[in-house]
Amino acid sequence: MRAPGPLSGIRVADLSRVLAGPYATMLLADMGAEVVKIEQPGVGDETRSWGPPHAGGEAAYYLALNRGKRSLAIDMKDPETLALTRELCLRSDVVVQNFRPGVADRLGLGAAELRAANPALVYCSVSGFGARREPVDRPGFDAVIQAESGLMAMTGEEPTKVGVAVTDVLAALNAAVGVLGALYRRTATGQGDHVEVSLLDSALSGMVNLAQTAIVSGEDPVRHGNAHPSIVPYQAFHTADGQIMVAAGNDVLFRALCTALDLPGLATDPRYATNPDRVANRASLVPVIQARLSTRDSSHWVDVLMAHGVPVGEIRGVRDALAAAARAGDPATVTVLHPTAGPLDLVRAGFSVTGQSVGLPPPLLGEHSVEVLTELGVPSSRIAALSEAGLIGTQENA
């Protein structure tokens, strides 16, 4: 028997869409929470249409963010179905939404109104720039946040967007952490909280040492591409057949690297004795290491450097990275049985906790509408009428 997840018995009303909110609620579902994904009939979450590629008619983007949830397709523009949405939120432990600031309030689904009716409710708002920055309704997609936060300025040889929507991912993790903290405090006080997360704040806090460097020095850090501004050698190097990443993060590791590369002169050279020395003299040190690494292929150097305790890794493609994780003995994927795609591999969460489970496969649009509304006490005849009117989506009309 699988142990129950740490959030077993917690219901989450998920009013969010696209990436940050759905990723946060998926992590909560992985820990055992019951998550009801609320979507517009006939349309659903935008990521359902963000393809190709598709599996079983569902976009890969959507599949990546929505396992473990039930889908309620309901029209929140209609007063009756909006009231049902509100009732679901009030009966939940957690509400997560990422409307533009002010929209939830206009719908009667804002934090103040719902928490006045249910003080134990944990309410999480996710936005691009935060509700207190001007202009308050400024939309914030990841690419814009990467530009505005300084992240692009610190990435690549020229200002470069990170390949994944990393500010959404950071916001999702912050949202999940905030919700968990609020739930924990609720066990002692009985009171919920309003957790506010923005992509911009998540990106700025995620700049960590670079942001602090700017504060301390009074200057913008210098972009170093695949190298590190404060540690040498800590960068990508070309080999005879590819590239590897070497991370000699301290003086002991640097000397081990010199031994592994059979370059003993570097270890005794006073120009490279300490990390500050190596940072000051990176221009003369890096070419010597590069010349040596160019003589053999990546797999050779990974084996040699690992044997000497030097952190190193091949620069892999995504498919190769997933395969390598599985070969090492702990696959990064789990398999669910999807109603249209069949057996479907999904990338699991980056943590492991007792009772963790992927639960349900990513739901079809409106797959659980009848089920969820029945649990709210809506008579079957009324559900049928709402479906006929197009105010809810079911598997028959979604």
Automatic annotation (TrEMBL):
Signal peptide: none
SUPFAM superfamilies: CoA-transferase family III (CaiB/BaiF)
Family annotation (InterPro entries): CoA-transferase_III_domain, CoA-Trfase_fam_III, CoA-Trfase_III_dom3_sf, CoA-Trfase_III_dom_1_sf
Protein's UniProt name: CaiB/BaiF CoA transferase family protein
Native species: Allokutzneria oryzae
Source organism superkingdom: Bacteria
Source lineage: Bacteria, Bacillati, Actinomycetota, Actinomycetes, Pseudonocardiales
Keyword terms of this UniProt record: Transferase
Alphabetized GO MF terms: transferase activity
Pfam families: CoA_transf_3
